[in-house]
Sequence to fold (397 residues):
Amino acid sequence: MSNLSSQVDNPLFNNALDYAFSTLEGNMQVLQDFPESCTGPEWTTIVKNRVPSNWVNGFWVGQLWLAYGHTNDERFADAARQWSDKLAWLKDSVGTHDLGFIFYLSHVIGARLTGDEKLYTSALQAASTLIKRYNSRGEYLQAWGTPLPTGTRKDRGRINIDIMMNLELLYWATEYSGDTRYADVANQHARTSRLTLVRADGSIAQVGDFDPDSGLFIHEETHQGFSFDGCWSRGHAWGQYGFATAYLYTGFDSFLETSRKNAQYLEKNLPADLVPFWDYDSPDIPDTYKDSSASAVYACGLLELANCESRIGNQSAAEHLQKLASTMTESLWQNYSAKDTPMPTLLKEGARSVPHNYMEQALIYGDYYFLEALTKLTRPELAMKAFPEKHLTYKTT
Fold:
């Protein structure tokens, strides 16, 4: 980040940030539970008694921490601490693979911005819980269900591309603790995902099925995409961002090349407004749903890839990626902002899961990544504090 241009001077982004802080302030006053999606004037909150639904909790807290970083308004920090306390119980939960989404965005970022080391304690415990999902025969982290001894055979043999975004918690845990187990698991899972989910053209399958006992890969699958051999756009964004992050922590060229291929596939398939359709292989394009949340994730992922290119001296590539991310973020603000709607959100027209009839919604993760992109584009010094340079100093396998 430090090697890219210091700041994007764009008044639209300042307007977007003002709107974000005002919206977050209003939400702080009314929310009692963690927000997930929205189609009207109120957020639909998580199903509290269903552990996997809690995967979205960190996005709300992450927004509060970033708002505090921008404004130095202690009301945002106080709220972020209170909401972090509400989700801390998940650090011991083996019912979700998304502990990275939950604890990296809440506890790790919060500790970096405040210096409160106590927040790191829960994050490190969450990382220890997450690696319980590791299948050493298949060299992957199990996506759904619970691991042995209670998990079903089908669940124990499934991975998804979403997990690539949870690996940063593990890399951080090795940096913080010096224990290489976490990064070793992250590396193995990233390698397995690259070999089984990423295709030669840079597209990505969402799900992979394995024999959990032998570790042999069986076939591609999907859960939220159009078909098993298609490319679900938000999953593709998870992968593009995740592989860039893995490269920055490890220096493994294969991860960098994978993220590059993903970005090239993205550019070939983007519509004019730079917000992708929910699945690149939907037969209904262009008469189908967009996913603003995928575009927000891509903006952040492209900036992460720009950091990769900048680190190795490819400045022209870095500048191209930064410009694309900036233009994508600008399009989100101009064409997909919820500012002219009654919704208490930043973005509209997210596609949570079209096969399950969840589309045209505001999504809490779309809002978070939109604010992350705005932060990285406008406040490099704040971004460096919240998302510092990634250097894994411990040898990993």
Q: What stands out?
A: The mean pLDDT is 95.
